[in-house]
Every structure is written in structure tokens, then in C-alpha cells.
Specification:
Layout (H helix, E strand, L loop, with lengths): L1 H28 L4 H12 L2 H10 L2 H21 L1 H30 L10 E7 L7 E2 H10 L3 E16 L2 E12 L1 H5 L5 E2 L10 E5 H6 L10 E4 L2 E9 L14 E4 H7 L11 E8 L5 H19 L6 H8 L2 E6 L10 H33 L1 H9 L4 H37 L17 H27 L3 H6 L10 H32 L10 E8 L8 H12 L4 E7 L11 E6 L2 E10 L3 H5 L3 E4 L9 E5 H7 L9 E4 L6 E9 L14 E5 H4 L9 E7 L3 H15 L2 E8 H7 L2 H35 L1 H9 L4 H37 L8 H27 L3 H6 L1
Parallel strand pairs: 4-9, 6-8, 15-20, 17-19
Antiparallel strand pairs: 1-10, 1-11, 2-10, 3-4, 3-10, 5-8, 6-9, 7-8, 12-21, 12-22, 13-21, 14-15, 14-18, 16-19, 17-20, 18-19
Helix pairs in contact: 1-2, 1-3, 4-14, 5-12, 5-14, 5-15, 6-10, 12-15, 12-17, 12-24, 14-15, 17-24, 17-26, 17-27, 18-22, 24-27, 26-27
């Protein structure tokens, strides 16, 4: 390396000598004597030694050496200004940490694809029908798998929860039933063992990688037994975690062949053709999703006709199959009905606004610091330093601050990510979920990028402006003289005002949304109400109305229990609504449909407005809420009328036996309280089985005591176990946790940015006052009063304030419209929201400006003019 440097210098010296010799020869040719020609050639060329020094200093080694010297000098300077350095690192770190955490969250819940080769080749095959169910019937799935030649593989799945035992330890596991070719569709080898094969019916199972690691991660687990009740399943493989996230955020613990799963559920084999399956396919290379969808739509009528089971009429099968078929992108898995991607995007935007405000504040801080060092810069320029030398030194200095900001940012990101994962919820599901949020190399790169962009963006403009000044002007100016032109500082402050206004407005909007959800009328009293998730033992045993009557009798006999009811789910368990088409007479509407057993309405505390609750033997009677009754049967009694429910894969007809008050059972975020309560026995096809369900109990007991009593009774009955007992009141509060998290983080960001904005206003007004000190002293000497000078100072802030408010108003309106369009539960943007935010920002601006403005207005002319 040193030899190469020496060669370059020698080559340059030889080139200089050659140039001088050429110039000397030309002069000799014109008749100039040799001695004079040599001297004239050197005069024309200039100082050869200086040229050699310029060449040497322009090399890469000298550039790196300058960087090293600048870094050491900057480190010494920052060491002498520890308070400034700590504050700057904190600013960069907070902005970096917020952006890194929110990016990691958004990537995990919205951008992350399934961890399989060429995930973009995966498509979800969905049926098109009136209800929101997009699954395919098994008979259609098998026929499609045989016919669809544009796909390399196809996989269907369904599942539920089962109590399972491994080596004496029993736990409730999520079990997926799969059909089709998993290996070909997912394109990924198993972690250990093998994949389940198409058409496999043996009692075998794969376990998911997360559950396998929970058991110790021993490859020797292959061949061991996993027990589900009386069934022994041989473990044949371990499925990769990223490949089995077929439904977003859910990774099953166990995978079994479909027919094995149906045996566990005690489902007769003749019902297999009508079984629901979610379906994913892998398209062949070069095949586009639209092309494949067009082929399937063309084949659809023939597929429906050829797949019809013998026991089902052609017309009935067409209705069960749906109106058509479509393909959706499958790289992200099937939707879980969550709005987490929208919430995480809102958080990312909030973090970006906060980082922008911190960046502008840091830019103002660096500009003020640079103005304080202008004499130092002027002396360096006078001694021969170039403008680029000053800019390079400033960038090296701020790079050291950025490096410290990355460290602080990663610490902040770690804590903020943990807080978000603890706060955000995918409904109130009892199944473990994985959002895929990781602070990995990608997050580290984002942290470095954000810290670097923040630091360099904050320093570049101030450094360029300061280095562009004339050295003579700065040397001649006094130590306390400032330029009264503060346009760049005003632009910085305007950006801070706009960002602050958007953040404060967002905090007001999110808080209003949270309060509106807290005021939502659920239609029942959640206080003293408990929900118990009940799981069936394997195999699912036949259980008719007599079993459920006995179960409720035992639950109601527990001391402290006032009433109890059974339904398909615990109230407030899910964080999204599921609308079903309801028809009555000549009118239609949509409503939330729940299946219940007699006694549920009493336990829930819902008002019975007319009629009666269906009895145990009535499978075709239903309760409808008052809103449904008014929409379907306006001006006439609803009791005795017929309603048609289009959901659940078949149209069901019920006679209205009673009308209840409007009730929200899934989540406070439901857009309406229209509900229809139908008998569970009408939904569960024969034979009746002890499905997973929810016990709703009104009692004044500690949850541990209630759960122990329930476990004892269910153990005696021998068909079910209790998964968890939770307060419905707490579930309702947890259902709006996402909104509460948004409100809390937005309030925190806006509060911190308001503090920074106030500091920026104070600094700008103070700097402007000192810059105009001589002017004010002359004005006072000519008769101006402190009040007039105060108005003059505050008036100069009016343009900055108005510009910031105007920019913030436009950004706020756009952000509100986007948020309202994507989040159903959001409060409607109202002018008073913006008025409150603008009032807060304006008030803080004036408060921060008054103190330095008043100090400048009370100038003593004699003191200033003498100085």
C-alpha cells in the first residue's frame, strides 16, 4: 500500500518534470537561451512543490486521515460540551427508537410475507357468496386440485382447539387439519421428519416448530406419540414456523390429515364432502393471478356440477358452493379479520411526524451552536480552510452524535416494541398469536438510516449556511452581534408547528374515538358477568340437549352463581364484526348472528321486549333485536314472522319467537347493534356434539373459585374442559385496547413535540431579540415603549404561527380522512377537534414567546449603545 502511494507521488513528479521540459523546449525553439527558458518554464508552471502537496492531499489516504483528525477533534469538542451532546443524542435516539419500533411493528403485522420460497406465487382460492365465509367445500377442493393445471400444488386447511397429551403433560393446543400437497404447495422442507402426504388417513401428526421448541427441540421426537383423548397420533415431522402461518398471526401447534381431524371431531365420513376448507395454491412459474382466476371462473360451473355429492341435489349444491370463485394474493396468509395493519400504519405515521419535529428542533439547535462558533469558523477560513472542510467537520461531528443516537434508539425501540406488543391485541382470542415483530438486522439498518438521516438532515443546511459566510465580516463583527435575518430558523419552527398540530389533533381524535367506544351501549350489563371458554374432549362425544341442560343445571347450582347460559362464543371475545344477511318479508338487512341455548338471554341480562325465549326442543325459533324487527317488519308485530338467515353456508328459516333489545356481543366496535339469536342445535348438523363454546355466567365469585367449580362439574360430566375464565367487563375494555394504545402513544408524542416546539419558539424569539438589540435601543431612545416593542416582537411570530397552522391544517385533514376511511371505529373528524389542537399549539407558542420578547422589549439604550 505504501509502495503504491510512493509510486503515485513519483509518477506525478515525473509528469511535472516532463511538462517543464516540454515548455522549456518550446521556448528554446523560439530562440530563448537555455537558462532563461528553464526559469521562464518554471514561472509559467507555478510552484511545483505546492502542486505536489495538492496532489498528495487529494489522495484517499489523506482524505481518511482528515476524517480521523476531524473525528478526534469533534469528539474532544463534544466532550467539552457534554450537556449539548447528551441532549442531541437523546433527540436523535428518541426519534430513531420511535421510528424503528413502529417500522418493526408495521413490518411484522402488514409487510411480512410467509417464510416460504417465492411467497408471491401463493394465491388464496376463495368462494364468492353472500355471507363473509370464503372457504371451499371439500368436494370442490378435491375436484379443483385435480383440474387446476396452472397450479403446482394446492393445500386446504381447517382446525380447532383440542386438549392433547405429550409424555404425561396435557395442554390445549391449536390443531390444523390439512388436505392436499403441503410439500409441493409450501415449497419448503420440514425441520425434521416428513410432510403429511396427500390422501393420508393414518393416525399421524406433524407438530409446529414453535411447539417443538417448547418441548425441547429434540429431533428424536419423530416417532413418538401425541395423545388426543383415546387417539394416539404418531409424530412424523416438524413443520417450519413460517410455512404454517396459513391464517395471519396464527401458527398451529399440531397438523393432522383432514380425515384424522374429522375422526377427532366425531364427524361422520359422509359429511366430508361438505366440510369447509381454507385453500391456498402455488401457481406455476410465469402464471399470473388474473390469468389463473379467469381460467377458474370459466371452469367454475363444470367444477360445481362434477363435485356435487350424491346425497345433495344439484340446486342445493350450487347454493352451498356459492356464486363463483376468485383468487387473492396469498403471500401474507388468509386474513384474520384484524385491523392491526391499519393501527400500526397510524403509529408509523405518528412516529415519522415526531421524528420530523425532533429533526427540525435539532437543526435549530445546531444552527444556534454554529452561530456561536462563527468566529472560530472565520479564523479557519482566513487561515486557508476551504468551505468543504468546514462542512466535512460538521458532518463528522454530527455523525458521532448519530452513532450515539443509534445506541439510544435501539434501547428505546426495544422498550417501545415490548409496550406495543403488550398493548395491541388481536381480539380476545384464547389462541397464542405471533405478530412476527422482530428487532433484527432489518430493524438495525432502519435505526442507522433514520439516525443518519435525522442527524445529517439537521446539520447539512446549518453547516452550509455558516460555512458560506464571509470570514472578514465575521471577524469584524462583535462577539455578540447576530444577523437579524432568521428565515431558516423560522422555516424550522414552522415545520415544528405543523408537526405539533398534526400530532395534537391526532391525539384529540384518538381520545375521542376511545371515549366514544367507552360510551357505546352494549345492550347488557357486563359487571359481574364472567365468560368461560369450554373445550371438548377428544373424540367429540355425542351431546344432545339433555347434556347441555344438565351442564347448565350444575353451573347454576354453584353457590354465588345467579344465572348461566351457553352460546357459540364468550361475549366480547373477538375484535371484529361478522355481518350476515337477514331477510324477512320483502326486506333485507344485515345483523350479527349468534347461536345460543335457552337461558342465555337471562344470563346476559338482555331485555326481552316481546314474545318469549325459544325452548330446548325448538330448533326453528329465533330471537331478533329491536333494530332488526323495525327494519324487516316496520309498523307490524315481529313475533310469529319468518326470517331467513343466509349465513353459515346454508339458508335457514326461523320463526321469530321474541324480540330483545339491541345488543353488541362481539365487540364495542360493531357498527350496529342488530343481532339475531338462533338455536345452536339448528346450526350444528346431526349428530349433535359437544363443540367448543362459551359459558356466560353472572356470579359474584373470584375467578379462581369459579373456574375450580366449573372444572369439577365438567370433569364429572366427562365431555368438556374449561380453557379459561375471564371477566366480560375486562374483555370489553380489552377490545378497545388498540384505540387506547393509539391515544396513549399519540398523546406522548404530541406532548414531547410540544415541549420541543416551545423550546424552539423561545430560542427563536430570544435570538431575534438579541439580533435587534441595537435597533430596539434606538427605538427606545426615540420614545418607543416596552409594550410597543413587545407587540412588534410577537407580531413577527404571527407569520410563522399562521404558516405552521395552515400547513398543519392541510396535513391534519388529509390524515383524518385517511384514518377515517380505513378504521371503522374512528370518530368522525369535527372542526372542534382541530380548534382544540390549534388552540393548544397557539397558546403554547405565545407563552414560550412572551418571556424572551418582554426581556428584549425592556432594553436599556445606554448600556447597549455603550457596548
Amino acid at each position: 500500500m505504501l509502495w503504491r502511494k510512493a509510486r503515485k507521488v513519483e509518477d506525478f513528479a515525473a509528469e511535472v518534470e516532463a511538462h517543464l521540459a516540454h515548455e522549456e523546449d518550446e521556448l528554446k525553439a523560439r530562440g530563448v537561451p537555455a537558462a532563461e527558458a528553464r526559469a521562464e518554464a518554471r514561472r509559467r508552471f507555478g510552484n511545483a512543490t505546492l502542486r505536489q502537496e495538492d496532489f498528495f492531499e487529494g489522495g484517499r489516504a489523506m482524505f481518511l486521515d482528515r476524517l480521523w483528525r476531524d473525528a478526534r477533534q469533534a469528539a474532544r469538542g463534544l466532550g467539552r460540551e457534554r450537556a449539548f451532546a447528551a441532549f442531541a443524542v437523546l433527540l436523535i435516539g428518541l426519534g430513531t427508537g420511535a421510528m424503528t419500533a413502529m417500522f418493526a411493528l408495521y413490518h411484522g403485522v402488514a409487510l411480512r410475507k410467509m417464510a416460504v420460497p417465492d411467497a408471491d406465487a401463493l394465491v388464496l382460492v376463495e368462494g364468492v357468496r353472500e355471507d363473509e365465509n370464503r372457504a371451499l367445500r371439500y368436494a370442490l377442493f378435491e375436484r379443483l386440485r385435480e383440474t387446476f393445471d396452472l397450479a403446482e400444488g394446492m393445500l386446504g386447511w381447517s382446525g380447532t382447539l383440542f386438549p392433547m397429551t405429550y409424555e404425561g403433560q396435557t395442554s390445549v393446543l391449536s390443531v390444523a387439519y390439512v388436505a392436499g400437497d403441503a410439500a409441493q404447495t409450501l415449497g419448503l422442507p420440514p425441520v425434521a421428519g416428513r410432510w403429511l402426504t396427500p390422501g393420508e388417513t393414518a393416525p399421524v401428526a406433524m407438530i409446529g416448530e414453535p411447539y417443538w421448541r417448547k418441548l425441547g427441540g429434540d429431533p428424536a421426537i419423530i416417532g413418538k406419540t401425541l395423545r388426543a383423548g383415546d387417539y394416539a397420533l404418531t409424530i412424523v415431522g416438524v413443520a417450519p414456523a413460517g410455512a404454517i402461518e396459513l391464517t395471519r398471526f396464527y401458527r398451529p401447534d399440531v397438523l393432522t390429515p383432514l380425515e384424522v381431524g374429522l375422526r377427532l371431531e366425531s364427524v361422520a365420513r359422509e359429511r366430508l364432502p361438505r366440510y369447509w376448507l381454507g385453500t391456498v395454491a402455488r401457481l406455476k412459474p410465469g402464471v399470473h393471478r388474473r390469468q389463473a382466476e379467469q381460467q377458474l371462473q370459466t371452469l367454475w360451473p363444470r367444477l360445481v356440477e362434477e363435485s356435487a355429492p350424491e346425497a345433495v341435489s344439484a340446486e342445493e349444491w350450487k347454493r352451498l358452493a356459492g356464486r363463483g370463485i376468485r383468487l387473492s394474493p396469498g403471500a401474507y396468509g388468509a386474513s384474520s379479520g384484524s385491523d392491526l395493519s391499519k393501527v400500526s400504519l397510524a403509529l408509523l405515521v405518528l412516529a415519522a411526524l415526531g421524528s420530523l419535529a425532533m429533526c427540525t428542533n435539532l437543526a435549530g439547535l445546531l444552527l444556534s451552536r454554529g452561530l456561536g462558533r462563527r468566529r472560530e469558523y472565520a479564523m479557519r477560513l482566513a487561515l486557508g480552510a476551504k468551505r468543504w472542510d468546514l462542512v466535512r467537520f460538521s458532518l463528522v461531528e454530527v455523525s458521532l452524535l448519530a452513532a450515539g443516537g443509534v445506541v439510544v434508539g435501539l434501547v428505546v425501540a426495544r422498550g417501545l416494541t415490548a409496550l406495543c406488543l403488550e398493548s395491541l391485541r388481536l381480539g380476545n382470542t384464547t389462541v397464542a398469536v405471533d405478530y412476527g415483530v422482530r428487532l433484527d438486522v432489518r430493524a438495525l439498518l432502519v435505526a442507522m438510516l433514520v439516525a443518519g438521516a435525522t442527524a445529517l438532515g439537521a446539520q447539512l443546511a446549518p453547516a452550509w449556511r455558516i460555512s458560506g459566510a464571509q470570514a472578514a465580516d465575521w471577524i469584524k463583527s462583535g462577539a455578540h452581534t447576530f444577523s437579524p435575518r432568521l428565515g431558516f430558523r423560522k422555516v424550522i419552527l414552522g415545520v415544528q408547528l405543523a408537526a405539533s398540530l398534526v400530532l395534537v389533533s391526532s391525539a384529540v381524535l384518538f381520545q375521542s374515538t376511545l371515549e366514544s367506544l367507552a360510551r357505546v351501549e352494549l345492550g347488557f350489563d357486563a359487571r359481574g358477568l364472567w365468560g368461560a371458554d369450554v373445550m371438548s374432549l377428544v373424540p367429540w362425544s355425542n351431546a344432545g340437549p339433555e347434556y347441555f341442560q344438565e351442564l347448565l343445571r350444575r353451573v347454576r347450582s354453584i353457590p354465588g352463581v345467579e344465572s348461566a347460559g351457553l352460546s357459540d362464543s364468550v361475549p366480547m371475545r373477538w375484535n371484529f364484526e361478522l355481518k350476515t344477511a337477514i331477510a324477512g318479508g320483502r326486506r333485507t338487512t344485515t345483523a350479527e348472528v349468534s347461536c345460543v341455548w335457552p337461558g342465555y338471554v337471562e344470563a346476559l341480562g338482555v331485555r326481552l321486549l316481546a314474545g318469549r325465549e325459544p325452548g330446548w326442543e325448538e330448533a326453528s325459533a329465533a330471537l331478533i333485536s329491536s333494530s332488526v324487527a323495525q327494519e324487516l317488519f316496520p309498523g307490524e308485530p315481529a313475533v310469529g314472522q319468518l326470517v331467513r338467515v343466509a349465513g353459515r353456508g346454508k339458508e335457514m328459516v326461523f320463526t321469530v319467537s321474541g324480540v330483545v333489545g339491541d345488543v353488541r356481543l362481539r365487540t364495542p366496535r360493531q357498527s350496529s347493534a342488530r343481532s339475531v339469536l338462533i338455536p345452536c342445535r339448528a346450526v350444528w348438523e346431526p349428530p349433535q356434539t359437544a363443540y367448543a363454546m362459551g359459558l356466560t355466567i353472572r356470579a359474584h365469585l373470584p375467578p379462581a373459585v369459579l373456574e375450580a367449580a366449573l372444572q369439577g362439574h365438567l370433569k364429572d360430566l366427562g365431555k368438556q374442559v374449561v380453557k379459561q375464565v375471564r371477566s366480560v367487563d375486562a374483555l370489553a375494555a380489552a377490545a378497545v385496547r388498540n384505540e387506547r394504545t393509539l391515544s396513549t402513544i399519540a398523546t406522548g408524542f404530541s406532548g414531547f413535540v410540544l415541549v420541543l416546539m416551545s423550546a424552539g419558539v423561545y430560542g427563536l424569539v430570544d435570538l431575534a431579540g438579541r439580533a435587534r438589540m441595537r435597533e430596539f435601543s434606538v427605538r427606545v431612545a426615540l420614545g418607543a415603549t416596552p409594550g410597543s416593542l413587545l407587540r412588534l416582537m410577537l407580531g413577527s411570530m404571527a407569520a410563522v404561527l399562521l404558516g405552521g397552522v395552515a400547513a398543519g391544517a392541510g396535513l391534519t385533514w388529509g390524515a383524518w380522512r385517511a384514518y377515517r376511511a380505513h378504521v371503522d371505529a374512528a370518530a368522525s373528524p369535527a372542526p372542534e377537534f382541530f380548534a382544540v389542537a390549534a388552540g393548544v399549539v397557539t397558546a403554547l407558542t405565545l407563552v414560550a414567546a412572551i418571556a424572551p420578547a418582554w426581556r428584549a422589549a425592556r432594553v436599556a439604550p445606554a448600556t447597549v449603545l455603550r457596548s
